[in-house]
UniProtKB/TrEMBL annotation, chain A:
This is Phosphate transport system permease protein. It is a multi-pass membrane protein. The chain crosses the membrane at residues 6-25, 46-67, 126-149, 169-190, 232-253, 274-295, 315-342, 363-384, 431-455. Residues 234-451 form the ABC transmembrane type-1 domain. Keywords: Cell inner membrane, Cell membrane, Membrane, Phosphate transport, Transmembrane, Transmembrane helix, Transport. It holds the Pfam family DUF3708. Belongs to the binding-protein-dependent transport system permease family. CysTW subfamily. It is found in: Cell inner membrane; Cell membrane. It comes from Sphingomonas colocasiae. InterPro entries: MetI-like (IPR000515), MetI-like_sf (IPR035906), Phosphate_PstC (IPR011864), PstC_N (IPR022182). Part of the binding-protein-dependent transport system for phosphate; probably responsible for the translocation of the substrate across the membrane.
UniProtKB/TrEMBL annotation, chain B:
CDD domains: ABC_PstB_phosphate_transporter (cd03260). This is Phosphate ABC transporter ATP-binding protein PstB. It comes from Sphingomonas colocasiae. Keywords: ATP-binding, Nucleotide-binding, Phosphate transport, Transport. The lineage of its organism: Bacteria, Pseudomonadati, Pseudomonadota, Alphaproteobacteria, Sphingomonadales. The keyword Acyltransferase does not apply. InterPro entries: AAA+_ATPase (IPR003593), ABC_transporter-like_ATP-bd (IPR003439), ABC_transporter-like_CS (IPR017871), P-loop_NTPase (IPR027417), PstB-like (IPR005670). GO terms for molecular function: ATP binding. The keyword DNA-binding does not apply. Residues 10-252 form the ABC transporter domain. Pfam families: ABC_tran (PF00005).
Amino acid sequence: MSTLALLFLVLGLGLIAWISARVRASRFVITGPASQRPHSLPAYHAWYVGLWVAVPALLFLAVWASVSPGLVTQAVLATPAAAELPSFGMERAAILGEARALADGSIKAAFNPKATALAPAFAQALGFYGTIGAVVALLLAFAGGAYAFTKVKPDFRARTRVERLVMGALLIASLVAILTTIGIVASLIFESARFFSMVSPIEFLFGTQWSPQTAIRADQVGSSGAFGAVPLFWGTIFVGAIIAMIVAIPLGLMSAIYLTQYAKASTRRWVKPILEILAGVPTVVYGYFAALTVAPALRDIAVAVGISSASSESALAAGLVMGVMIIPFVSSMADDSIAAVPQAMKDGSLAMGATSSETIRKVLLPAALPGVVGGVLLAVSRAIGETMIVVMAAGLAANLTANPFSSVTTVTTQIVQLLTGDQEFDSAKTLAAFALGLVLFVITLLLNIVALRVVKKYREAYE
Amino acid sequence: MENMTETLKMTARDVSVFYGAKQAIKSVSIDIDMANVTAFIGPSGCGKSTFLRTLNRMNDTISGARVEGRIELDGEDIYASSMDVVQLRARVGMVFQKPNPFPKSIYENVAYGPRIHGLAPAKADLDRMVESALRKAGLWDEVKDRLNESGTALSGGQQQRLCIARAIAVDPEVVLMDEPCSALDPIATAKIEELIHELRGRYAIAIVTHNMQQAARVSQKTAFFHLGTLVEYGDTSEIFTNPREERTKDYITGRYG
């Protein structure tokens, strides 16, 4: 029996159990004093029984699906036909794979005759273990169903049990994200450790030469590769934290002030959604815009005013477009913090004879400042992790320069460069990407922690 | 009695207030003078706070609010287009129900008004104005050693006196108080009431209160509002001992409200 059919069979059994438990529970007497009414609604009994049928069987199938291929292979290797196999290596694995595919019908004919010889043994083993799996799963389903069905009585607390299971499922769902994060961090740390065994952390963190291309011949320039990441860190900060923020902070803040303090409700109704659309534009589209429209225009302007060194890929182009991308982010955080300042504060200032703009400057903004700072920090952490715009518009040259018209490169751009194409995963060049990723991760993590602390502290102040 | 007209500070004639289509105040006429504290009493939702807010145009900040009738400050129509609302509010200060000091230092809270109105050209002037306002509000001795601490760190009663100091720092002519003691304990309330006694005569004071004993204690004139209309207006002693209207009597004897 195929796995899919078995899956549907188990679910079908669960459905039947659900319906029959519901029918049974709905026959409970519900009149009488509250203390004698059934504890749970029929639907809870139904879910209790249905889940007892489906969950143990499905869990078993999941485990079986990961265990049985090993058992099948062992059984096949024990047959006389397996003696023909090479003892180890790629070819052995290829033959086994081919034989298995032939046996379960996903290919019609094998390229290797040895695989054809092994196929009957595979087919037999697959059938044997498949049947065991199916029988055990169905037995579990029936046993679970029978156990649960005997429990369906008026005073049985089905609701409590079902809700506990739901809570467990929710817990597992949240753990998936946490465990994945831990896994990512672990892999970053592990690969970075390998990198730092080849390149010293001091050189990486404080060196100013970045040329990761390791040469093929010894006489080539830069044959050893240079992994001083300071130009990358600088480029990242220059584009993401300086130029982008020079654009995003004033514009975002001013738009938030306009929207919360001056705009009429009707204006707000169409301006806010448009700002949110800006946040929803895919970053690759911003990248196009930066590379094809903004960067050439900036270069032309720079050349026209006499800056001949202006590059067609520039920190300024990437930073400007990134700043625009971040505007809705800053604006909505600032909007929230300004709106959270109590009306009483604003009234107090207006009643003193302060104008709206004095009230905003002297009362609302200082009171909202922590929230705004938190929002800006989150925006910075987003900007320095942003990839597409800088890949397309900032350039690849690791220049340590404060000239906004020259091309710079960022951490994310270099990670993309290091990891695209065919790579050897044990060279310093490739592993450098993980070290860069680790640095980026640590910086954004710290920024986020600080920002959330600041925002939280401020929220408490008015509650 | 003939100098009564001279001390008359604000007059309201046939004032109606609308929130959208809903009429909150119906044709109210009241005088506020320098010599007396005027109390506005009445059950919740009767319009007494709304009326108070028309006197310094704080209702302007509520969208959809509209005022009809005529309100004069020293004979000048405060809703006339020639009246600058910023100057009006400097002349007619306000203290709110809940103490609302700014999250700034005690000094900066009091200095706020003089600064925005450009009243203190030099730091020494500002220092003097802050001290004088805090003294008048009876708060100076409690805070003189910690003027740089945050105003929000004071107790509720001190915060409210800070707000009063903030309001009188710009030397207004009228001080409006919107249930200034409703968020305070009895001891803090007693201090505010004492302060109102001291401020009387220096400023024309109008106070909204829920507490009839408080109205009886601090005011000389009382206006009783009910359902947006002014039911009775007169000397506090008259209203409390010998009300003309049945509704007033029912309210002050605690039959409703």
